[in-house]
Specification:
single chain
Length: 134
């Protein structure tokens, strides 16, 4: 799984960012993650969850993380230290709030409902439709 979570997304998104831009890469990563979460709702066997949650969601999240770490540094050249600090703090807040949200969704809506709602949350990256590039 380490290869899917780190090496493959970094390599592929490193190739895609110069070709299609930051926003389109975010849209692609968001679509992959949302599709993986959505398809995991219908999984009946463990290997299906490995493909949907393990591969598709990880690949899409890897695209998103690569862009989230590099785009602010490209956009704000004069204050990179401050921008990087704020960016990393936002990631830390997300790591605190994310599990609490997932646990609440799981308790309220069961596993399938929580995965479906998480799929909708993952589609928020589609709002980065390419209008202008950084």
């Amino acid at each position: 799984m380490v290869i899917v979570n780190s090496i493959v997304p970094i390599t592929v998104s490193g190739y895609l960012i110069p070709k299609i831009g930051f926003r389109a890469t975010v849209a692609l990563g968001s679509a992959l993650s949302a599709f993986g979460y959505f398809m995991s709702v219908f999984a009946m066997r463990l290997w299906e969850l490995y493909i949907t949650l393990g591969f598709l969601v990880s690949l899409g999240a890897g695209f998103l993380i690569t862009v989230a770490d590099s785009a602010p540094l490209v956009a704000c050249e004069e204050s990179r230290t401050l921008v990087n600090s704020i960016n990393e703090c936002g990631g830390s807040v997300g790591m605190i709030i994310g599990p609490i949200l997932i646990e609440y969704l799981f308790q309220e809506y069961s596993l399938r409902g929580a995965l479906l709602i998480t799929s909708g949350i993952s589609l928020q990256g589609e709002l980065c439709h390419p209008k202008t590039e950084l």
